[in-house]
């Protein structure tokens, strides 16, 4: 039995959704999923074998941290940018092999949902890199992640007959928003899709972290600029952003003391969280408004990625557009699921090409 594989490239990880290949027997779509953190996919022993790595460690680190960033990908024929392309192709090939090994099946088709803002030249270059990395046997295909999300929407009960859909995907450092329209018969097709940097979930976490550190300092237990201690504060801020629904919560922080680490409480209120989130929510909603064609409003707004957990966003979107706001189960997997659906729809006789 063979499988089809949908991959969604994000800045710091790759989301993979596996489905049975429907081509041989027309089987139903059954899925499983896996998540691959980008920075931990490179075995230490493989590093010396990477081509021309000597003077390009900076680009190597940038690539590992920012897979979905368009800057490492280039159409140049050599140099550091070409190395980043090679790393990307090798990474995807390694993930495909890991998935095949875990499910004991061959991937007949792999469709990769890439950032919608990649240029045609970047997509073409990346496809050649995938073929060079050995994915020609798996029929490597490419599609914008926004189109992959629309494929999932087209197969979702309650959305499969919608006529105008706005999609908001909040990621680490940006918001990806767009608008799609369905003709009288047919599938949703993209009208506009744009990436808006500076209004992702990490930006709210930054502001919340600064608020926590300021409160701790005023209370007489400043948190030193130690990476591990600051990382703990940051992680707890992310938890508060997602979970705080009561009037206040006590956030535990650690600071060095005479007898080791000491624990202290910082109180974060709902007013703190909402006050920090509200300006960003306004920016996200304005971005959704700008992506809709003049004179048109969506009949559904779908929140995916980190958008469903962003404070106030669903309520403000519903008020602004006066329409149904959909928050799918496991929203971060929507693009990967759509990529798997697109891969499943491609006939096995289709020649190798990029979407």
Task: Describe the protein.
It contains 9 helices and 12 strands. It is an alpha/beta fold. The longest helix is centred in the first third of the chain and has 25 residues, at about 80-105.
Keywords:
single chain, 355 residues, alpha/beta, five-stranded mixed β-sheet, 9 helices, disordered C terminus
Strand and helix order: EEEHHEHEHEEEHHEEHEHEH
Please tell me how large the radius of gyration is.
22 Å
Beta-strand percentage?
25-35%
| Share of helical residues | 25-40%
| Low-confidence sequence ranges | 350-355
Average pLDDT score? 83
Give me the count of strands.
12
So how many helices? 9
Strand order of the largest sheet: 3-2-1-4-5
Using the alpha-carbon principal axes, give the shape: globular
Give me the secondary-structure category.
alpha/beta
**Termini gap:** 25 Å
Oligomeric nature of the chains: single chain
